[in-house]
Amino acid sequence: MTTPHHTTNPLEAPFHELVRKRRALRAFKPDPVPDDVLRSVLEDAQHTPSQCNTQPWQMHIVSGKARDELSAAIQAEEKIGHRTPDFTFARTDYPALYEARAQHQGAEYYKALGIPREDKAARRDVMWRNYTFFGAPHVALLFMPQVGDDVRIAGDLGMYGQTFLLSLAAHGLGGCPQTYLGFYAGTIRKVLGIDENSKMLFGVSFGYPDMTAPANSVYKIGRAPLKDSVTFHS
Ligand SMILES: Cc1cc2nc3c(=O)[nH]c(=O)nc-3n(C[C@H](O)[C@H](O)[C@H](O)COP(=O)(O)O)c2cc1C
């Protein structure tokens, strides 16, 4: 865990609190987010910086009937093992340090939910909640154009995603970024009629969080100390 940061500048305090308040939340109330609140969040996200101000994010917000149909389509594809990702994701590709952190995160999450390691069925049910958007009334899907090796565009989308998540937190909302949804990029494009050339990086289920659910109230993951991430050169 990083040590708490104490600031003497009162202007810094709200940001300091907000950035720690934001967490990946995985249980939601069914109440939809009012349109004006949603627009306010999206206007905030629009202020994200990007390379040469290209603003390459292509955001799709899915709610109501479309949300239910999308969830059903993803679940049908998952049942027959038909994944259509645009980008790879394999835990085995990660160097040992990062894989160890991922394992720790998973273990802490299942512990908070009271699910033992060997209960594969319960763990699968928890994983499956990705496809029901954790009960959230909305899901945001982050698409991007293909440019070069895609890495720099993906960086811009990551920045956009964090601005979106921080703004959700600032509005009393919450969200969970989801690579899991990216496994169904092809299906999502088909269901929503999105251009083939638009590639999906990740999704964010979002809404008003249910803070009584153990996934939100018991579970909270920390961070590595600064020395593991930052090198100072002088
Ligand atoms: C790009 C991205 C993709 C993620 N994909 C998933 C996912 O598919 N399912 C999930 O439950 N959490 C997912 N997460 C959430 C991470 O597990 C979470 O951010 C991390 O454990 C740190 O916890 P915190 O966000 O609560 O601070 C994702 C996070 C990011 C940034």
Write structural notes for this entry.
This protein has a single domain (24-220), classed as NADH Oxidase, CATH 3.40.109. It contains 9 helices and 4 strands; from the N terminus they run H-H-E-H-H-H-E-H-E-H-H-E-H. The chain has helices spanning 13-21, 35-45, 64-79, 96-112, 120-128, 151-170, 179-182, 185-192, 214-217, and strands at 58-63, 138-144, 174-178, 199-207. The two termini are 26 Å apart. The mean pLDDT is 94. Its cofactor is FMN. GO terms for molecular function: oxidoreductase activity. Belongs to the nitroreductase family.
Alpha-carbon distance between the two ends:
26 Å
Number of strands: 4
Report the CATH architecture: 3-Layer(aba) Sandwich
Instruction: Give the CA-based shape.
Output: globular
Q: Structural class of the helices, strands and pairings?
A: alpha+beta
Oligomer: single chain
**Mind describing the biggest β-sheet?**
4 strands, antiparallel
Catalogue the unreliable spans. Answer: none
| Unique bound compounds | flavin mononucleotide
Give the tally of structural domains: 1
CATH topology: NADH Oxidase
Helix content: 40-55%
Number of helices: 9
In round numbers, the mean pLDDT is: 94
Keywords: Flavoprotein, FMN, Oxidoreductase
Protein name: Nitroreductase
Pfam family, one: Nitroreductase
InterPro entries: Nitroreductase, Nitroreductase-like
